[in-house]
Design a protein that fits this description.
The complex is a heterotrimer.
Chain A (H helix, E strand, L loop, with lengths): L1 H7 L21 H32 L3 H4 L14 H8 L5 H31 L5 H12 L4 H14 L6 H8 L2 H12 L4 H8 L4 H12 L1 H17 L2 H6 L8 H4 L12 H33 L4
Chain B lengths: L24 H29 L2 E2 L10 E2 L3 H7 L2 H33 L5 H13 L2 H11 L6 H8 L15 H25 L4 H9 L4 H28 L4 H6 L11 H11 L3 H26 L7
Antiparallel strand pairs in B: 1-2
Helix pairs in contact in B: 1-12, 3-7, 3-9, 4-7, 7-9, 9-12, 11-12
Chain C lengths: L2 H12 L7 E2 L21 E7 L7 H11 L3 E7 L4 H13 L5 E4 L2 H9 L7 H5 L18 E2 L2 E2 L2 E6 L2 E5 H6 L10 H11 L6 E3 L5 H6 L17 H15 L6 H6 L7 H5 L3 E6 L3 H6 L10 E4 L15 E8 L6 H18 L15 H9 L3 H4 L2 H10 L13 H17 L4 H19 L1
Parallel strand pairs in C: 2-3, 2-4, 9-10
Antiparallel strand pairs in C: 4-12, 5-6, 7-12, 8-10, 8-11
Helix pairs in contact in C: 2-13, 14-16, 17-18
Classes of the chains: A mainly alpha, B mainly alpha, C alpha/beta.
């Protein structure tokens, strides 16, 4: 692991990158290569363990409702119910429109959040103004109030301002989060203040300093934030539950409840098929933003 | 926009009155404003309301007119109630183990995933997957995996020689460890992701300089990596503390606070009182007490990390 | 005790349609009647109905029929999930002024709360003016409705008695003649005979002895100011539960918890892991679904075990799907018309969803049975037994009147009973502890 820390933990645009004299990269030497493969194998084994629950999900999505809870567990269903997927997408309870709603809510929230959080986080970290730290602490303190207590007051507030039962009731709170601000603030604290000085001396405005100098540094963190906020928004159940009453506007997690019948019984096979389907967009988002990490390392030029 | 008068390169221009650090105070507020206003509107106002309700008795159904102020009654009632203190202890147990465990494992995982590993990109996705799944699915899966006789976990433990493996969700003593297990599984990938992003922002020159100075990997870790990650560690720690004081969805689905009351943590107690018993004032009082507890802990974390960052 | 979970299920089961529908009879096309009007009034306008039953299980058809019988009216049915959060959503919507005209409540305790908060309109006069609803009047005997201050605020559209469903094949194999009447101990004896340790438990659960013996308001002392848990009836039920679990004639708590069987009750019976189950009728929906739950045995319905040879005791089922009108409604006439339509036509539309209607309307028991049990009923059920248990016996269904701290006492009951059945609490300590905590909860509820 000692080699890995050194050769790969470098982002791109750092002032003062210098060349390393050529020699066989440490990692290609035979002993190191063996170590590398062994370690990778270990991590992969761990990874597979992590995935076992998902294997069960997929397996259950292909079973009939009774079999889902059959004990002992059969991993490969003897009678794969591909029909479950068809039913879930095209049946009377199609999840298609829940998908669309979820995509709308999550995408807008995430884009909005990235912008406002980056601005605010930057300000809390790098700009100096009166009361800065005090305001931030109060900000932070309010997140400690358990969110479930906020559902009812929010409900009443949203009714007053007329966004109840609209997707905005979900989007707006998602755009203005403390989580994002906190994360970006912590990140920007770690960025040297000197970076901005050069640009300021050249006469750049504050906005330019932010947009052209500091923000690009934050790409990896922004990518991480995008993923996290997207997932959070995608899986949010309590908010849509309280804020939406028209079924056509439901987002996915709420939409899954149509598979719960009046008695609380669950059409488990169908619900699992819907759950598996609902994971796909998050996959895609992750893969897109995951590349940000890689790209920033390519720019570093020091690809171990 | 504030301060964007002269185009870049136009030469020195007059600066507005500034605070320390030479930056316009107005700029600071401008940057914050969008986030702040939105936050105040959609979160701060409800927070104030929720805090106020803690001093009342309210069953929600009776509308705003049914709010009855009761002063400190809810708090007195709580602090003298054995159930409350039992819940506090359980919450400390649950949080005290799962938060450091997830953080530590997350950091280790990040170090591994930041390093030289085959198929690193895909591996990162693999570990992050648990965070993506929705709660119902996760609940079901673990319900089956933790079945005392036919669940995978106990089958594996028996195969490894453990003859009477714990009853997990059916056992009053093993239910919290079960929840910890599920929590770590679900949270480690998330924390690792954030750590990876932070690790990549550590300037490589620092490592190179240290290596040239003769520092070994262990020393480099403690003198460079950890301090550089301090803001991130603080962030994750505080967020985890907050999350612990709020998370009840899994408990509501898997155990409903049981068996008996063995998994009734503070957040679940709050949910029970608010959403099941319709005692919203009482629930808000629990929330306020949670808030005080977490604020104290978070404050301690904040204080402890001051002066240990990289810049100092 | 254990009646809590099956009761809740049935309450949940009953939930769906209530909001949307009060059936108007479809044979006469009379629109809703105003209490003092001299003739029928033409209905118009649109209303919103909220219920917990998915629309395709009956409510949609019913609403469509209502709209067809009353052209120019619009009824919109919205389904809410009948769990804690779903009900909270309904409650906040009701008092937040969302347009809801008719809503459904699936638990008397919750109805008491809603009415106490003024969310429901007083329906006393209206109910009194419809002859078919006589059983639900404020002064009916026996009381079959929630009465507060001499007034009534809703009408129950579903009746849901508790029955014992048994695996007929198992009974035959053990040489047992299906009884037409039995006591708790006789039930236990049959369960023992059906059990095969390690494979089959004779019964899923022990009989709900306490409430069968005590009847309405079993939890409360006569004055309602404290609890009643020191009554020996509760100990009798606890002993039955502990005893049957111990001899493996009932399913053990560990397994129930491990598989969440208190919610997913249908599995063990349909998989042949238990021979009998004390349950309400919602289970029938799963039994009839041979595609999702294939099984070959026939199901027979047996009466609840009674107190003694001469005393059947109370039926621990429930009345459900209680329809009420939002006190803030803009169109009370149409809302009431819908409720009446629902009550009169639930038999026609809701029965096939697994809900036995309070009013048979124009349906005969045979026709109700065939809707309830499905087209394939001769293959799946011993139909005569269902006819006997549901229609020929006189079931005294419990209708409670006291609800102080009901939700807390339910939770308490579940917690303490689980502890006893898991072995971490002695049966002797159950009653004193229940009494202590229940009394505290009741006094705090004011």
């Amino acid at each position: 692991m000692s080699t890995s820390l050194r050769t790969t933990s470098v982002p791109a645009a750092r002032a003062g990158d210098h060349e390393v004299p050529w020699r066989t990269p440490k990692r290609d030497r035979p002993a190191a290569r063996a170590k590398r493969y062994a370690f990778s194998a270990f991590l992969w084994a761990l990874g597979v363990l992590f995935l076992v629950p998902f294997a069960w999900m997929v397996s259950s999505s292909l079973k009939s409702n009774l079999d889902v809870f059959q004990i002992p567990v059969r991993w490969i269903p003897e009678n794969p119910q591909w029909q479950n997927y068809i039913d879930v997408w095209t049946g009377s309870k199609s999840i298609g429109r829940y998908f669309v709603n979820s995509i709308i809510v999550s995408s807008i929230s995430v884009v909005g959040d990235l912008l406002t959080a980056a601005m605010a986080g930057y300000a809390f970290a790098r700009l100096h103004f009166k009361g800065r730290d005090k305001v931030f602490l109060i900000y932070l303190a309010t997140t400690i109030i358990p969110f479930q207590l906020l559902l009812i007051p929010r409900f009443m507030l949203f009714r007053q301002i007329g966004i109840y039962n609209t997707l905005w009731a979900l989007i707006l709170p998602g755009i203005f989060t403390v989580f994002g601000t906190f994360l970006l603030r912590q990140f920007f604290i770690g960025v040297p203040p000197e970076l901005g000085e050069a640009a300021r001396i050249d006469g750049a405005s504050e906005w330019r300093v932010f947009w052209n100098v500091y923000l690009p540094q934050a790409k990896p963190i922004l990518a991480a934030l995008a993923i996290i906020q997207f997932v959070g928004s995608w899986n949010n159940y309590e908010s849509p539950l309280i804020m939406l009453s028209t079924e056509a506007r439901y987002t996915l997690p709420l939409g899954l409840t149509v598979f719960v019948d009046a008695d609380g019984g669950l059409s488990a096979g169908l619900a699992m098929a819907a759950s598996v389907s609902s994971i796909l967009p998050v996959f895609v988002v992750f893969l897109i933003f995951q590349r940000q990490f890689v790209e920033s390392m390519v720019h570093a030029g020091l690809r171990g | 926009m504030v301060g964007d008068l002269a185009p870049a390169g136009a030469g020195p221009r007059r600066r507005r009155p500034t605070g320390p650090g030479g930056v316009s105070t107005r700029a600071g507020w401008f940057f914050i404003l969008p986030n702040l206003i939105g936050y105040l509107a959609f979160t701060a106002v409800p927070v104030v309301f929720a805090v106020g309700i803690a001093f009342t008795s309210w069953n929600v159904v009776s509308g705003l007119g049914g709010i009855k102020p009761v002063g400190l009654d809810n708090f007195v009632s709580l602090l003298t109630n054995q159930q409350f203190w039992d819940a506090v202890i359980r919450t400390f147990y649950y949080g005290g183990v799962s938060v450091p465990l997830t953080l530590g494992l997350g950091l280790l995982l990040a170090l591994a995933l930041n390093g030289d590993v085959v198929g690193r990109g895909v591996l990162r996705l693999v570990f992050f997957m648990p965070t993506i799944a929705n709660q119902i699915a996760v609940g079901f899966v673990w319900l089956l995996m933790l079945h005392p006789t036919s669940g995978l976990v106990n089958l594996a433990l028996s195969a490894l020689g453990w003859h009477d493996p714990p009853g997990w969700l059916t056992s009053q003593s093993a239910v919290i460890p079960a929840l910890i297990l599920i929590h770590v599984w679900g949270g480690v990938g998330f924390q690792a992701l954030i750590f990876v992003a932070a690790l990549q922002s550590v300037p490589s020159e620092l490592y190179e300089a240290a290596e040239l100075d003769g520092a070994n990997a262990w020393q480099r870790f403690w003198t460079i990596t950890v301090p550089a990650l301090m803001p991130t560690i603080t962030f994750l720690l505080v967020m985890a503390l907050i999350g612990q004081s709020q998370g009840f969805g899994l408990i509501a689905f898997l155990t409903q606070g049981g068996p008996g009351s063995a998994s009734t943590t503070l957040p679940y107690l709050m949910y029970q009182n608010g959403f099941q018993f319709y005692k919203f004032g009482y629930a808000a009082a629990i929330g306020l007490l949670s808030f005080i507890g977490v604020a104290i802990l978070a404050g301690a974390v904040w204080r402890a990390q001051r002066g240990r960052g990289l810049q100092s | 005790m254990s009646d809590t979970f099956v009761n809740r299920r049935s309450l949940i089961a009953g939930a769906g349609a209530a909001a949307a529908l009060a059936a108007c009879s479809s044979t006469t096309s009379e629109p809703g009647q105003m209490p003092s009007a001299s003739g029928p009034v033409k209905l118009s306008g649109s209303i919103n109905v909220w219920g917990g039953v998915p629309p395709e299980n009956g409510p949609k058809e019913l609403c469509d029929a209502f709209m067809a019988a009353n052209p120019g009216t619009t009824v919109t049915y919205t389904r809410f999930v009948n769990d804690e959060q779903g009900n909270l959503k309904l409650d906040t919507s009701l008092q937040g002024g969302t347009d809801i005209d008719v809503f459904t409540t699936y638990s008397m305790a919750l109805l008491a709360k809603r009415i106490g908060a003024g969310l429901g309109m007083d329906l006393t006069q209206r109910i009194a003016s419809v002859p078919e609803l006589a059983a639900y009047k404020a002064d009916a005997n026996p009381i079959q409705n929630y009465v507060a201050g001499g007034k009534v605020y809703g009408v129950p559209a579903q009746t849901s008695p508790t029955v014992v469903l048994a695996n007929l094949d198992m009974l035959k194999a053990a040489g047992i003649t299906p009884p037409t009447k039995w006591t708790f101990d006789e039930y236990r004896e049959v369960a023992r005979k059906l059990s095969q340790p390690g494979k089959v438990s004779g019964s899923f659960n022990a009989p709900f002895a306490a409430r069968t013996i005590l009847g309405p308001d079993a939890w409360y002392a006569k004055d309602g100011k404290s609890s009643n848990f020191t009554d020996p009836a509760f100990r009798k039920e606890l002993d039955l539960q502990v005893g049957m679990q111990g001899e493996q004639s009932a399913m053990d708590m560990k397994t129930i918890l491990a598989e969440k069987l208190q919610v997913y009750t249908q599995g063990p019976f349909l998989q042949g892991r238990v021979g009998m189950i004390n349950t309400q009728l919602f289970l029938v929906r799963y039994i009839s679904d041979l595609k999702q739950f294939p099984h070959t045995f026939k199901t027979i319905a047996l009466p609840q075990p009674g107190v003694s040879a001469s005393d059947d005791g109370w039926n621990v089922g429930a009345v459900g799907d209680i329809l009420s009108i939002n006190s803030k409604t803009q169109n009370p006439e149409l809302s009431w018309a819908l409720i009446v339509f629902w009550m009169k036509n639930a038999a026609k539309y809701m029965t096939k969803g697994g809900r036995l209607p309070s009013l048979p309307g124009s349906e005969t028991p045979d026709s109700l049975l065939s809707q309830l049990l499905g087209a394939d009923m001769q293959n799946i059920y011993d139909v005569a037994s269902f006819k006997n248990v549901l229609f020929e016996r006189k079931n005294k269904i419990i209708v409670d009147t006291k609800f102080a701290a009901a939700a807390e006492i339910t939770t308490l009951n579940t917690q303490l009973t689980q502890e006893v059945l898991l072995g971490s609490r002695t049966p002797d300590s159950w009653a004193p502890e229940m009494k202590k905590q229940a009394d505290a909860a009741i006094s705090k509820a004011g």
